[in-house]
């Protein structure tokens, strides 16, 4: 009888050890390699729908990448990034770790973090001049002689969603189809939602600091399982 009880106790301790090891491995992967996110709105429709999932990798960048003479910028127009908008103050590392633990245990259904990063598409890089007409952005980089559409300059193909505006909607109102020309400051990115007539982005916040980029989106998946690559690499 004592032998059986001792064996059961060892099995329980071994199971607990394995669970802790699995969790630590998941946290390690999320911090340095890959993390799963659930899409909470239709702001990136038609590319991403509410309750879709994406797999992203943590992203950071050195200040030297913002030099005006840098010709190999590590971010490309058209790719998807996860960012914290200017009105959000990201929580501390330990708070985020606890949030990940709860989301891991509850299969991403429950979390304590008040804010989650938003998925937005990169439209303009530092130094770019940008304007918008009929919900389509046109960009003129410092090395370009004329404006070109966002689709011509993007390394990935995508579509945007736009709905007709009410009659009399002025161009200076939010979610309008036009935007006056602006220049992206060095150290910042101009990002936009694919659902142009129903989501907030750099048209409303202005360009975002690179420090607010948390992840680079790699893979989009849906239930039942279907996979879609979001990045070139």
Report on the structure:
This protein is an alpha+beta fold. Helices cover 22% and strands 25% of the residues. The protein has helices at 2-32, 93-105, 150-153, 202-205; strands spanning 35-38, 53-58, 80-83, 118-124, 129-133, 136-140, 148-149, 179-183, 188-192, 208-209, 213-222, 226-229. Strand 6 and strand 7 (148-149) form a beta hairpin. The longest helix has 31 residues, at 2-32.
Descriptive key words:
233 residues; 4-stranded antiparallel sheet; 4 helices; 12 strands
**End-to-end distance, in Å?**
58 Å
Low-confidence stretches: none
Beta strands, count: 12
Radius of gyration: 22 Å
Number of H- or I-type helical stretches: 4
The helical percent reads: 10-25%
What proportion strand? 25-35%
Helix and strand content put the structural class at alpha+beta
Topology:
Elements: H1 2-32, E1 35-38, E2 53-58, E3 80-83, H2 93-105, E4 118-124, E5 129-133, E6 136-140, E7 148-149, H3 150-153, E8 179-183, E9 188-192, H4 202-205, E10 208-209, E11 213-222, E12 226-229
Task: Summarize, please.
The chain has about 230 residues and is α+β, with helices and mostly antiparallel strands.
